[in-house]
Amino acid sequence: MAARVYPPLSIDGPPVKFGLVGAGQWGREILSTLSRLQTAQVTSICDTYEPYLKRGAEIAPKAATVTDYRKLLESADVEAVIVATPTHLHKEIALAALQAGKHLYCEAPLAGSIEDAKAIATAAQQAPKVKFQAGLQGRSNALYRHVLQFVRSGVLGSQAMISGQWNKKQSWRRTAPTNSREAQINWRLMKDTSTGLAGEVAIHQFDFVDWYLKTLPTAVTGFGSINNWRDGREIPDTIQAVLEYPNNVRMIFNATLASSFSDAFTLFQGADSSLMMRENRGWLVKEADSPLLGWEVYARKENIHNETGICMVADSTKLIEEGKEPGKEGALEPTQTALSLAMQNFISSIREDKPTACGPVDGFNSTVVAIRTNEAVMSGSRIIIPNQSYLST
């Protein structure tokens, strides 16, 4: 299949010149995404591991390759930096990038500790001329942003509870030519360098819920265990957590590396309607006594969990205005990935001096939720998250 080339954004100025620090698996996914954008140009790639640099250069052959991120930051040919290294290595690179006056896209979680994450967020706040975006690409997801309008309009009614899961059978363990390199690339398995499933995966769903509810959890209880991958790892391969929100609303979250059943979803249940969201699909299921919304008759319907679900389609409003039927004459799923849209949002914020899709405050607050959840999981306890733990705008 030929790679899709996304249409150019309507922005003033030349393509943004990017430097990427961290050319691992996800870093290369970012490189591939940028290579398809006419508004982006990768000018430099940094990684301490030569094979990763070589693979990165295959994606962006015109980019300079360096093993020291400071060389990348010194380059006048780099306007914006993307930090895609292991989480516990973010702080030093991110702070140096901000100090150098580079626009910064920092993957989530922002750091491996709340103290380091706060240092990054605070430095970003104190650099008003620099655009900062946290790597919570759900904030750019076209479907999520569209459905948010319905949620904020009160379509769910009184919020009752939320549930979410992320299931994928994979070990997270990777092999390498040497023992030292193997220890480096398996940082996600060790408690000193990993934020666990809560930080490395669930943070995206936690942020999604915080965004939709317009509030943050006040406490979290967690449980974790190693049920399948008994290979010396310290991080649980299976976790459960209960996040407590204001007004007696709770989110029950489960994740495992032992099973792929039912993949990932987030479910909001309200007195009028329930909303199930996957990354690229969404369904609204109304209660029998819920008020008529008016637009249901135009919507595509599908069976979901023995109920009739109204398909949430990202461009439904526009399609209806054009006299078309959402889901029949338009795509059921977003036509661009959330990562591509996140990169385009970042580029647009730089060239048009607009707020980023996810700034330092939201990036930090979601990091707090993820790290506290991991701490609850590791200790099997309930942890209170006081309001002063979070940053405010």
Helices and strands, with pairings:
Blueprint (H helix, E strand, L loop, with lengths): L15 E6 L3 H11 L4 E7 L3 H10 L4 E3 L2 H6 L5 E4 L6 H10 L3 E5 L6 H12 L6 E4 L6 H11 L6 E9 L11 H7 L10 H18 L5 E7 L12 E8 L3 E8 L7 E7 L2 E5 L4 E5 L14 E4 L2 E5 L4 H6 L16 H15 L7 H20 L2 E3 L9
Parallel strand pairs: 1-2, 1-4, 2-3, 4-5, 5-6, 7-10
Antiparallel strand pairs: 7-11, 8-9, 8-16, 9-10, 11-12, 12-13, 13-15, 14-15
Helix pairs in contact: 4-5, 5-11, 8-11
Features:
single chain; 393 residues; alpha/beta; Rossmann fold; Dihydrodipicolinate Reductase, domain 2; 2 domains; 10-stranded mixed β-sheet; 6-stranded parallel β-sheet; globular; disordered N terminus
Q: What can be said about this structure in brief?
A:
The protein is α/β, with parallel strands linked by helices and 393 residues long. The protein has helices at 25-35, 50-59, 69-74, 90-99, 114-125, 142-152, 179-185, 196-213, 316-321, 338-352, 360-379, and strands at 16-21, 40-46, 64-66, 80-83, 103-107, 132-135, 159-167, 219-225, 238-245, 249-256, 264-270, 273-277, 282-286, 301-304, 307-311, 382-384.
Question: Can you walk through the features of this model?
Answer:
- By secondary structure, the chain is an alpha/beta fold.
- The chain folds into two domains: 16-139 and 339-359, NAD(P)-binding Rossmann-like Domain (Rossmann fold), CATH 3.40.50.720; 141-331 and 370-379, 2-Layer Sandwich (Dihydrodipicolinate Reductase, domain 2).
- 32% of the residues lie in helices and 23% in strands.
- It has helices spanning 25-35, 50-59, 69-74, 90-99, 114-125, 142-152, 179-185, 196-213, 316-321, 338-352, 360-379; strands at 16-21, 40-46, 64-66, 80-83, 103-107, 132-135, 159-167, 219-225, 238-245, 249-256, 264-270, 273-277, 282-286, 301-304, 307-311, 382-384.
- The protein has a ten-stranded mixed beta sheet, covered by helices on one side. The protein has a six-stranded parallel beta sheet with strand order 3-2-1-4-5-6, sandwiched between helices.
- α4 runs parallel beside α5.
- It is globular and about 65 Å long.
- 45% of the residues are buried.
